[in-house]
Amino acid sequence: MVIGDGVLTTAISVLSSVSGLLVTEKKLTNGELVLLACVILVGLFALQHFGTHRVAFMFAPVVIIWLVSIFSIGLYNIIRWNPKIVRAVSPYYIIKFFRETGKNGWISLGGILLSITGTEAMFADLGHFTALSIRLAFAFVIYPCLVVQYMGQAAFLSRNLQSIPNSFYDSIPGPVFWPVFVIATLAAIVGSQAVITATFSIIKQCHALGCFPRVKVVHTSKHIYGQIYIPEINWILMILALAITIGFQDTTLIGNAYGLACITVMFITTFLMALVITFVWQKSVLLAAVFLLFWFIEGVYLSAALMKVPQGGWVPLVLSVIFMMVMYIWHYGTRKKYNFDLHNKVSLKWLLGLGPSLGIVRVPGIGLIYSELATGIPAIFSHFVTNLPAFHNVLVFVCVKSVPVPYVSPEERFLIGRICPRPYRMYRCIVRYGYKDIQRDDGDFEDQLVQSIAEFIQMEAGEPQFCGSESSSYDGRMAVISTKSIQSSSSLIITEIADCSANNSIQSSKSLTLQSLRSAYDDENPPVRRRHVRFQLPTSPVIDISVREELMDLIQAKEAGVAYIMGHSYVKARRTSSFFKKLVIDIGYSFLRKNCRGPAVALNIPHSNLIEVGMIYYV
């Protein structure tokens, strides 16, 4: 519903603002109005990639001028047309209204609802501004301005009943009509901006919970985590907003859909808030029951809005069902895949039974095996072992995690641990990146990883807590390794060597085919300058023989080359699964996986060093 709100808010805000041209001397046709609204919508969504903080300097003056304008116009109309309208603040008149109108008064609540829609968008911006600033702005600025403006319109209509269709623009004094029209259009863009960015935040949170397909999330601010931009969602929202504007061409029908979307969001949010009060904040049930009073009031408005479903109210329901299906299918397929990995992890006992050679030929080099599991050995590794005739001398299981901070300092980036006993040369590395960290294919990652493993080997040998018995569990014991600077450590001697744009293993290869393919690839894709270093063991410190051998194997493996190994999994339903499960997994989930973005880690791996091995997951 929030996503639907993001579509409908932009459509009705912009279309309503330009509808003021209908009351001018040169009246525009309905088609010209829709065309103008579409142009403004395209411009609005095109601005999103600049980020909230870059365009907010324009929005703040617009909002202030707009609030001052509607307050002044409302006050002017109250004084000129009917000063007694201030008595409408009394609840006596709403009781009298329902007593005299009955059922028609209840149905009219669906339209009255539109007088408060839009204000809730402020609370959707909690990721962009502080809660205190939103509370103060709403209580002391926005709410008084809205009340005075609606009082002014009511005072104007009490003397001009024929102006009901365009009461706002008709109530504006002639000399200030055009300035207010321009400000109204700009204010509509600002209001739409709030809901669009709120939609981005909702999508980001759903993605973090595994309930939405992978999308590109651009963090536009290094100081505020919630300021983001999602290109795919931005253009989808634009297409839907244009479709609704062109399809309905009527603010009444769009208003029916918009009101239902807003009150549904409020209704559900209030109910969930009562649960938070009881179970999260551990407050009294009585306090939650008092809070539910607002829930019953919103329920009355919701019941009236549901009467508008045939007249446009079906739009947010259809949009919410579509997005709910996408989220359910993605979450269901992702959960089944992850559970398969958890329940089919390679047994450490089986791995130890293979011996240090793992039952295959161990060739020089480092193999970086990427996995989503932070503990255990993924099932795809056994698929590697049973299908590849050879594997690298040094194996590192790499798990990349994003953390909700702008930057992760180098001394906290790597978590290193050992999976099997020392002769196996198998390690685990958890790499942590902040949302503003830039991962580059410049060779530094490989050098820092090797240095971190070397530091871990040294630390493990020198600290008793890392030297458990051979029977104890190796997996799970990890340490944070500082990589503040490669040159700052004394574990290894580092010397920088001449830059080589091509991969060492291919350069040293005698195969003319590989060399010709590499040169053709470099012609089309200019290589990034990569920093190459050479590691050597220091001769002065006294190093244990087994530690020296392990460090020498690590250095020799680095000199031989680094290969990045990723599993390309295909998820399929078992043959015995139900028709519904096959429909969800084989068609829905497969379609989403093929059309969403790949894992972010795959974008930062040198393609010339990448090995992908496919595996089918039967869930």
Structural class: alpha/beta
Q: Which residues form runs of ≥5 with pLDDT under 50?
A: 468-473, 485-489, 500-510
Mean pLDDT across all amino acids: 80
Q: Which overall shape is indicated by the principal axes computed on the Cα atoms?
A: elongated
Share of β-strand residues:
5-15%
SSE arrangement, N to C: HHHHHHHHEEHHHHHEHEEEHEEHHEHEHE
Radius of gyration: 32 Å
Strand order of the largest sheet: 7-5-6-4-3-10-11
List how many beta strands DSSP finds.
Answer: 11
Helix content: 40-55%
Main sheet makeup: 7 strands, mixed
How far apart are the termini?
A: 31 Å
What is the tally of helical segments? 19
Description:
The chain has 619 residues and is an alpha/beta fold. 54% of the residues lie in helices and 12% in strands. It has helices at 2-18, 30-46, 52-81, 92-101, 103-112, 131-157, 167-170, 177-208, 231-248, 251-280, 285-306, 309-343, 348-354, 379-387, 444-462, 504-507, 512-524, 545-560, 579-595, and strands spanning 218-219, 228-229, 361-370, 390-403, 414-418, 426-434, 478-481, 493-496, 533-536, 562-572, 610-618. It has a seven-stranded mixed sheet with strand order 7-5-6-4-3-10-11, with helices on both faces. A hairpin with an 8-residue loop joins β1 (218-219) and β2 (228-229). α5 (103-112) crosses α11 (285-306). The longest helix is centred in the middle third of the chain and has 35 residues, at 309-343. The chain is elongated. It starts with a helix and ends with a strand. Residues 468-473, 485-489 and 500-510 have low confidence and may be disordered.
